[in-house]
Design a protein that fits this description.
single chain; about 500 residues; mainly alpha; 19 helices; about 85% helix; about 0% strand
Length: about 500
């Protein structure tokens, strides 16, 4: 989690540099639109889909102690993934401009220069997709060995690569420098994980056997998850398509807002979910539902403890924090207003996103990738319908319409969370609901105290600049919440404080 936090801070520096350089301009709109296809290919082939299918099978092979068989299967997965990703990246690069005109950036169809720029950025960033495919397998191997530090540090190298592109390549290459920074970052993401890999004595080969039962198992587990991730990516595609038809800067605004939103989401729920998944997999393989249920409850209570106050903090402090970090001549007050509006609607769904991260890992550990996918398909259809509907509603009441895209995401994800929890309950013989509700109630009381103090500050504290309110508010809000956690004796909070104290003593 500490590495995730550091990565988020460096990611924040990356966004400060990018946003202060490009504002919410058409060039940055093109950059975000160009990301969609490389992101889609990576996520559905080598990202979460591969990890959710590969780690349980790899873990079982490790437990059996057959090293030769373990690395033979791993080689098959590696070679197959490399062939598929390289082929899809090549085809996507060749079809970039028609794809943009007809699907992804229909609103820019009459602007050939913007389409050409976006296609050029896409082709550059497709190189990183293949590199990330290799890195994704290495990451899965680390996780199966209960090593989380190198994979958690790897995204830092990725962000550093983009920062290098922004600082040193953009002045020479313009917006293309950012795209090449993505490629540099992908290489760093892979290279940082390789030293630790040597300790497992891997034996990679050109072996690829489609009849291999373990490879077939991995592919069988991947297919539903791949469909689910493709469905999830469609949400972003729909957002991109709708945003390109709105005012200039709308796509940049929702993209930047979502990136800010993912900072606490990644540091909290994604970090916990990543660390707990191999434990889930072992407990599921042993058939120990009681242990898995206990791990599930502990993980979810930790997510609630951190995500509930973070959600309220983003709503109350979002605008001054955005102004503090990004606002300058390029990223002006209007840009701050656009991003803050979208962020407030995303922030309401932070808890739902966090819970879904943990719940889906439990399904994957039980080798059930179909249920989350089926629910994901329904969530996607709902998100698309709500996006179209709510944009019209927002326009009807004279609200900035891009905020509707964030609200649609929040509503759909909240319903997804509820349905997944209901369906997971019989699979684990319960989900510890009384304990979860108690934890949520205690955290809500502590968050209410924090919110009351922040509201009082905003009402009675007169400051010359709203950015000071954001800076002071973060410190005061965090302090009040910690005090409330101690007073209420919330177990997860006390454990966290104890861990920090032990680290300091060391």
């Amino acid at each position: 989690m500490a590495a995730f936090v550091v990565n988020n801070l460096i990611g924040l520096v990356r966004q400060v540099i990018i946003n202060r350089t490009f504002g919410t301009s058409a060039a940055l709109d093109a950059y975000f639109a160009a990301f969609r296809v490389p992101d889609l290919l990576f996520n559905i082939i080598a990202g979460g889909a591969l990890g959710s299918a590969f780690i349980p099978v790899f873990t079982e092979l490790l437990l059996k102690g057959d090293q030769k068989r373990t690395w033979q299967v791993t080689s098959s997965v590696f070679n197959l993934m490399l062939i598929v990703l390289s082929g899809l990246a090549l085809l996507s690069g060749l079809a970039a401009e028609p794809l943009l005109r007809s699907v992804l950036a229909v609103g820019w169809a009459d602007d050939p220069e913007l389409i050409a720029m976006t296609a050029r950025l896409m082709r550059i960033m497709l190189i990183s997709t293949v590199i990330f495919g290799i890195s994704g397998i290495v990451m899965g191997i680390h996780h199966a060995h209960d090593h989380f530090l190198a994979p958690a540090l790897a995204p830092i190298a990725y962000n550093v690569g983009i920062i290098i592109g922004a600082l040193y390549l953009v002045p020479v290459l313009g917006i293309d420098g950012l795209a090449w920074g993505v490629v540099i970052g992908a290489l760093g993401h892979l290279m940082l994980q390789l030293p630790r890999l040597r300790q497992y004595r891997p034996k990679f080969s050109l072996f690829l056997d489609f009849k291999d039962k373990d490879l077939r198992t991995i592919i069988g587990l991947m297919l539903p998850r791949t469909l689910g991730l493709a469905v999830w990516e469609i949400n972003f595609w729909v957002n991109t398509i709708i945003a390109t038809s709105l005012a200039t800067g709308s796509l940049s605004a929702i993209s930047i807002a979502f990136q800010i939103f993912t900072f606490p989401q990644a540091a909290i729920s994604r970090a916990i979910a990543t660390a707990v998944f191999p434990t889930f997999a072992r407990q599921a393989a042993d058939g120990d539902k009681a242990a898995m249920r206990a791990t599930f409850v502990a993980s979810l209570r930790s997510v609630l403890l951190l995500s509930i106050p973070a959600s309220v903090g983003l709503v109350m402090l979002g605008r001054p924090i955005i102004a503090l970090l990004f606002q300058n001549r390029q990223f002006d007050a209007n840009s701050t207003r656009l991003v803050a509006w979208a962020l407030s609607w995303y922030a309401v769904g932070l808890v739902s996103h966090g819970v879904v991260e943990i719940v889906t890992r439990a399904f994957y550990a039980l080798k059930d990738t179909r249920t989350p996918v089926l629910i994901g398909v329904g969530t996607m259809l709902l998100n698309v319908a709500l996006s179209v509907l709510l944009v019209r509603v927002f326009e009807g009441v004279a609200w900035m319409p891009h905020g509707a895209l964030a609200l649609a995401n929040t509503i759909a994800t909240t319903l997804e969370m509820i349905v997944l929890l209901v369906l997971l309950r019989p699979k684990m013989d319960g989900i510890g609901l009384p304990s979860l509700l108690k934890g949520a109630a205690q955290t809500s009381v502590a968050t209410l105290a924090m919110g009351a103090v922040l509201w009082a500050m905003n009402t009675w504290l007169v400051l010359p600049d709203e950015r000071l309110y954001g800076l002071i508010g973060m410190g005061v809000g965090a302090l009040v919440f910690v005090i409330a956690v101690v007073v209420l004796r919330i177990p997860e909070g006390q454990q966290l404080i104890g861990m920090v104290r032990r680290r300091i003593k060391r």
